[in-house]
């Protein structure tokens, strides 16, 4: 049995925070899921699985109305799922018995680091490093909030100048802080090796690169890309660090193909 089971829409860089950490720490993480549009036909549970049509009818009492990302959709969430996951969102992680739920991608990643701390100290070498890592993770949540609103609006075709401006400002604040933290030419955000701060940074930036897939929509609204052609020269240390992380053996299985696909769209 896996040390941790995660249920989510896929692909999802925020889930990969945990799988990347697991490779460093030797933790067994099981991931279940499907593309977001298919999760309407899944049972949301520790034992998450696709439902056949007969089950969807017999389990109609479990139907709940989706909110963020699956707004208005009918989703089949068990009472046990909601007891373990009080906000009812994915990614949703569970301990081996399915009774303990862990929610929010940074916390799921932290759980992996704690489970495998004897193998690799992703959460820092002492209380001071751990607290500095927490600072980066907390700041990432501010950026992630505006990034999610922006990316969902792009996907739904509802983005406007206000949403774009908030996401642009959030990205600039986040990228500027990462750039400063890496000056002068550090190889990691905290201490002398890769930590949860670096994993979170790589995953959130990879997710934000989905903007590349919505260029036509931005052009129609006369809105410039936030990840424009010159952004790497504005934050050279941050993007050099991102490239190193994506190429790393523990990051590459998840982030490599994902980033390459989005960069090819940007080039096109």
Automatic annotation (TrEMBL):
SUPFAM superfamilies: GST C-terminal domain-like (SSF47616). GO terms for cellular component: cytoplasm. GO terms for biological process: translational elongation. Residues 126-268 form the GST C-terminal domain. GO terms for molecular function: transferase activity. The keyword Transmembrane helix does not apply. It comes from the Bacteria. The keyword Transferase applies. InterPro entries: EF-GSTs, Glutathione-S-Trfase_C-like, Glutathione-S-Trfase_C_sf. Keywords: Transferase. This is Glutathione S-transferase.
């Amino acid at each position: 049995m896996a040390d941790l089971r995660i249920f989510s829409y896929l692909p999802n860089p925020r889930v990969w925070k945990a799988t990347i950490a697991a490779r460093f720490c030797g933790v067994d993480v099981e991931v279940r899921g499907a593309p977001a549009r298919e999760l309407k036909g899944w049972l949301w549970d520790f034992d998450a699985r696709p439902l056949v049509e007969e089950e969807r009818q017999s389990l109609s009492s479990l139907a709940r109305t989706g909110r963020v990302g699956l707004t208005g959709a009918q989703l089949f969430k068990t009472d046990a799922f909601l007891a373990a996951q009080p906000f009812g969102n994915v990614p949703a992680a569970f301990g081996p018995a399915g009774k303990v739920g862990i929610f929010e991608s940074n916390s799921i990643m932290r759980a992996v680091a704690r489970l495998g701390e004897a193998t690799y100290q992703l959460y820092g070498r002492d209380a001071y490093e751990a607290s500095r890592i927490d600072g980066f993770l907390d700041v990432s949540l501010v950026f992630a909030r505006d990034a999610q609103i922006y990316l969902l609006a792009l996907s739904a075709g509802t983005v406007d100048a206000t949403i774009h401006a908030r996401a642009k400002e959030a990205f600039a604040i986040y990228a500027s802080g990462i750039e400063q933290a890496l000056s002068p030419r550090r190889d990691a955000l905290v201490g002398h090796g890769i930590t949860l701060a670096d994993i979170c940074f790589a995953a959130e930036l990879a997710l934000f690169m989905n903007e590349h897939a919505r260029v036509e929509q931005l052009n129609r609204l006369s809105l410039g890309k936030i990840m424009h052609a010159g952004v790497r020269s504005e934050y050279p240390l941050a993007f050099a660090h991102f490239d190193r992380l994506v190429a790393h053996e523990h990051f590459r299985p998840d982030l490599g193909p994902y980033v390459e696909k989005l960069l090819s769209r940007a080039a096109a």
